[in-house]
Amino acid sequence: MSRRLLVTGGAGFIGSNFVHHVLEHTDDHLTVLDKLTYAGNRASLDGLPANRFRFVQGDITDRNLVDELFADADAVVHYAAESHNDNSLDNPRPFLDTNIVGTYTLLEAARKHDRRFHHISTDEVYGDLELDDPQRFTESTPYDPSSPYSATKAGSDLLVRAWVRSFGVRATISNCSNNYGPYQHVEKFIPRQITNVIRGIRPKLYGSGENVRDWIHADDHSSAVLTILDKGAIGETYLIGADGEKNNREVVELILELMGQPGDTYDHVTDRAGHDLRYAIDSTKLRSELGWSPAYRDFRAGLEATIRWYRDNESWWAGTKDGVEAFYAAKGQ
Ligand code: NAD
Ligand code: TDX
Predict the structure, then answer these.
(1) Relative to the alpha carbon of 205, which ligand is closest?
(2) Is 78 helix (H, G, I), strand (E, B) or coil?
């Protein structure tokens, strides 16, 4: 059966991948609500079928607009956020406005209209792990966020839980590990290094480069979210991950190799303040209770396809690259 889905933040990296995934794999109709901040790109949604897709530019803190769009939707998937840790260290305020007040505004509309609501969150709410810790994050790991970004995401998760318990809102939450794939802003680690190499700039590793991230392809994140939307139990949290732990140095060396450059042609730069050491997801609950599994099991092949996408779509990112590099250069990064 065809649903009417409202997708917030659908012009961003993961939201736009979700929109493409849903149009390809379901009969659902989609409305994207996106403010088009510096991180949103309308071109990520170019050419989509007008009979199944509509774009609304607007802010998730705009109560009247949100109210109107919820009235027209069967379910809502909430991706919109300020998403970059480095920005949150420089200017936390927009993170509070969008991640906290924005989520609150959507929850009030979900409550008023009794709409199914899925909240997209991050593994960063759990803080970080030691490199040699045999444990990975599970749904019962205590919250311990480190940055203004992850603190506001943790706050938004707790608001969702409170609205489920206090008001009976029909919501689920997912906390996913680091995504890679097409349409990711060049401020983020993998696209920054790929586009650096294309531009003849040496990749930049924060600190020692020993920090570990647990990589998942954005398309696998999308299939997991659809699975939760279809089969998830109301009030539950599901961790999404694809067993993709790699340290940052390994990732940079692989990018250099795949792009035909010597493996040591990168720089170590000033470390991120409060830099989380390691994230690692145990996604057993999602796999065993809802039957999900990732399709991208080969990080090298996924990265190769991502490099090809950035080479083939230079016009998508060229306009933002210089500004991003100037921002980092001012911080010694
Ligand atoms: P992104 O920064 O690429 O995209 C965010 C989108 O939200 C942009 O299109 C932006 O214009 C829009 N937006 C921002 N503020 C808005 C507002 N007030 N009103 C309406 N739209 C607004 O982010 P992303 O990497 O695609 O992340 C999407 C979601 O997934 C976030 O909630 C993030 O916390 C979560 N997440 C991301 C990752 C990752 O690896 N990138 C991993 C786990 C979870
Ligand atoms: O130039 C860089 N060099 C570098 O070494 C950049 C931009 C990053 N890094 C490091 C910092 C991290 O250890 O690479 C790792 C990944 O950095 P980001 O791409 O900034 O991602 P991270 O901080 O791990 O957060 C991401 O995953 C979780 C997303 O941005 C979040 O939105 C998501 O919640």
Answers:
(1) 2
(2) strand
Tokens of 294: 């990732």
Nearest-angstrom CA–CA distance, 169 and 24: 29
Domains present along the chain, CATH in parentheses: 4-179+215-240 (3.40.50.720)
Predicted confidence (pLDDT) per residue in 212-241, tens digit: 999 999 999 999 999 999 999 999 999 999
Which atom of ligand 2 is found nearest the CA of 251?
14
Q: What is the pLDDT of residues 157-172, one digit of tens each?
A: 999 999 999 999 999 9
* 101 in Cβ contact with 93 (< 8 Å): no
Q: Contact, 289 vs 223, CB < 8 A?
A: no
Task: Output the pTM of the full model.
Answer: 0.99
CB crowding 90-122: b at 16 or more within 10 Å, else e = eebeebbebbbbbbbbbbbbbbebebbbbbbbb
Cα(first)–Cα(last) distance of the chain, in Å?
49
Tell me the helix, strand and coil percentages in the chain, rounded to 5.
45, 15, 40
Would you say the CB of residue 178 lies under 6 angstroms from ligand 2?
Answer: yes
Could you tell me if the CB of 54 is within 6 A of ligand 2?
Answer: no
What is the pLDDT averaged over residues 133-154?
98
Q: Is 50's pLDDT higher than 90?
A: yes
DSSP string, 264-279: T--EEEPPPTT---B-
Ligand 1 within 6 A of CB of 81:
yes
